[in-house]
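Why TBC1 domain family member 8B? Reviewers of the renewal asked for a concrete example.
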Amino acid sequence: MWLNPEEVLLKNALKLWVTEKSNDFFLLQRRRGHGDSGGKFTGLLVGALDTVLDSNARVTPFRILLQVPGSQVSWAIACGAAVEEMNRHWDWLVQNLLHSLSVFENKEDVASFVKGKVKGLIAEEVRGRQAAQEEDPEKFRGSLLKFELRFGLPSSEKLVTTYSCCCWKGRVPRQGWLYLSINHMAFYSFLLGKEVKFVIPWAEVTRLERISTGLMTDMVRVTTRQRQRDFSMFLSMDEAFRFMCQLADIALRRLLDSGGLETVHCRRRRPQLRISYYSLLRVLEQQALRAYVLALFRLPRGERLQEAALCSMWTPHARCHTPGTLYTTDRYLGFSSRDEGRCSVLIPLSEVISVEKAESTSVLPSPVIISVRSKKAFQLIELQDRDSLVDSLTTRLRSLQWRHSTFRSRKSLVCYSTAPYKSERPLRHTVNPDALMACYQHSEPDPNNCTSVSIETTTMEQMKERLWEEHFSEYGRGIHMFRTEKIQKLVAMGIPESLRGELWMTFSDASSELASHPDYYTGLVAESMGQSSLATEEIERDLHRSLPDHPAFQNVTGIAALRRVLTAYAHRNPKIGYCQSMNILASVLLLYTKEEEAFWLLVTVCERMLPDYFNRRVIGAQVDQSVFEELIRERLPELAEHIPDLSPLSTISLSWFLTLFLSVLPFRSAVCVVDCFFFHGTKAIFQLGLAVLEANAAALCSSADDGQALMVLTGFLDQVTDNDDPSSPASQPPSSPSGEEGNPPVEQHTLITDLITDSYEKFGDLTVKQIESLRCRHRIQVLQAHEDTTKENAVGHACIKYNVSLSPENLSDIYDLFKTEHFINLYWGEGSTTVALQTHDPSRPYVDQYRVDRAQFKSLYVLLVPWLCGLHTDTVAHRTFTLLDQDRDSFITFREFAGWLGMYTLYCKELNEKIRLLYCLHIPPGYCDIIDFCCIPQREFIQFCKTLYSMFHGNPDENELFQAIATVTSLVLQIGEVGHRSRCSGSEVSSDGDHPVFSTKEEGGTGKSLGLENQSEWTVSYAQILASLLTEQQLVNFFEKPMDLSAKVAEAKLKQYHERAGLLMLQQGTR
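Here is what the prediction returned.
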């Protein structure tokens, strides 16, 4: 079988291996002692050693090594027990690779090429095994049946995968099975007659981490708000942990962060079939791959991944085919080499002219030619499913071309109308056609002092321009240029100002958005300018705070351009609107690009490169701060050891990420960081942040407090200069040495180019895939921290602002029950998921963020209310919901729910309030708004009595209570009859004998009361009912009896999940 390449220092250590076949690059070796007929002593010794070794330590008898001429290091790339299998691997290497390796001039590229090929073969074998398993799903069906029987969850709870593992209780492991589903993780164990099982919703997971303890070196720890669970002994720990993190992340983003919702989208070809185990696994893998591809190429978040195909691309600068992966999305083609960052290409589909298949040969197997508009072609070979890939790309290309032609035809028709042209003409004159830097320089050099410096700066710029022109001639120019390690070095040197705007547009792909949306920006400006909103007010407040020292923003022209860009973006994306730090970023963009280009760059940064950074909760920035803390612990362990609490450093570095160092570095130095950001994305900010901390590690370790640490970092960043800056000390003529008499010591300065180069050398191995994996795990902690804050504020506001008479502890538990009911509806609700998601709005007040509908309220009512009314319970719950739903939007907020439970149920101490609530439940809709002056008709009074009778059912004093309520009912009826007669005797009765009819609807109708219009109707008031109830001590004792809310809440927590699950299973079974 093929192996992940492993280094072998000594190919014939102790002469344990015998070479069977060899050529310039490969060796097929046999373990001495296997297959020897001569029975030599060495072979017998080695054979005996292999026989007595444990099975895990035994060495396979055959292997294939990759050897590079002139190198002492070889790599094991295949091993096996049968000579036939090894001969097949050898023949494949000779037929497919040996000829290609001879064209490499650099022998180091040989090793990289072969190792990439072997990894690709391993990936194909894994996919083949998964496909074979999918054809026989009997094993999964058995696991699914056990999952449903053991945990009693509805069939709509999709099982994803299962793992055999151990769950630790103290120092005792329990062997069992871990079940991972869409919304939960569950564990089951049955050993020595003892059953252990539990279910953990992903929404309750606050942390997932891999730890090492004295008992086990590798464990998965799952932390919730109540306890920790440790799992170990997985057959595939990496896979299990990856799926756990991904499922928890998806669930939490769906449940808690609906503003940035990205759920698992599975496009099923046959929707009527139940999705299988391996299909769900593939959905998760595709979701993770899609997130990686979007981050790697900084694509729009709406892009869908279509194909991912292993192949090799012809790279003219290297004069060879570079192995890698081709990723295709709705509107882009992206190629990335096996080693991330070594070589990549991004091709917008709008730039593609044709995708064609070429004739396949032994040297160029399965070639595909992609032609683009710049008269350039890209060659791909070794595509496994070439025909389907080309057909898919051709179909999407034709569709895109048809849309573009339709758009152009519509635009040409619009041009014949003169009205739009007249309205747009003055607008075009207001949009700046050039970058502001072309008109305003940041600083004016002193002609008496800086002549030599200016000449040197100009020479440096010219040298950079020449290097870039040479690079363009070799690697291409524009969006589809080859992005290699060489371009990384050029970016680290600083992009020349004449090319900065162009390259920012190219690296970010904002140029494609600009080309695809002509006149979009001018239209936005026309719509947005002159409108007033909270965003425009904040923009006006910050306009003059954006680079105030730069001459471009000390005049009307620059300020007006900045206003238009920020206002247009706030109008385009009202969900983000305007956030602080956007003004600083937009100011820098306007300096080096045209106004319309600056707008599209701002769109790219806010929506692609820094997603979830610029909003009210800045979730994305907080996630990256948490990731940055872990990278500090991993990459700077000595600093982390001296500063165990890294949160102060994380707080200090927040502005680094939000403003791309623009607010902390000198202007020209910060612009160099922006260069790296547009080329590498947030990876560049992580690397540079680590380099800054490492450069100041000694000073930070010796700092006494957080304030001193802030001063250390601020002082360091202030003195980071750029060679091209005329005002920087690095550009000044050398002064007299420090220490001479009469001269102060020269302040030490750091060049930004040196700092960036240092960050690449020391932390350049950080990959986008690692960052995305860390983000997935740390997003769980950040979202749960926000949820804890929301809960604390909701409970605090309910206690203080809304005067809810419950203890904070009980309110906290009720909030959990309320939120869980909301989640259960999202888990298993039929056809109501979209509505339920809309009921959680993080922008609403804390006490109103979660809401429940009528069915969810009934479930909570049954769990928490101390008076259950038997068959009459649903009616009372319905009436209660109608009473609480004051705004008639069919939802109840947590504030309304907590207020009702604390002030108007048996959990409050006032008997009057309890009777008042029961009375209010029986007032017909629209009958009267003032309870004390409102009388209920005879029909509703009878319903009131039924409610009381049903409340007493099952009570130990049931008989006495029934007698008491019978007495009260008789008394109230007599009172009502006397009142009715007195009103009748004082009024004229019509001769035809008509009587008024009440239009009240039992189940929440909107009928209007007719009793107000006829004073002779039989009615009874709240005061009469209360006075009658007070005559019976048994009833007074019942209503004044204190109730334990804490015990009821604890019981509800145990029942809520399984009762709701059982009800939903029953409902699904009856369909």
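The mean pLDDT is 79. This is the kind of structural detail the renewal will allow us to pursue systematically.
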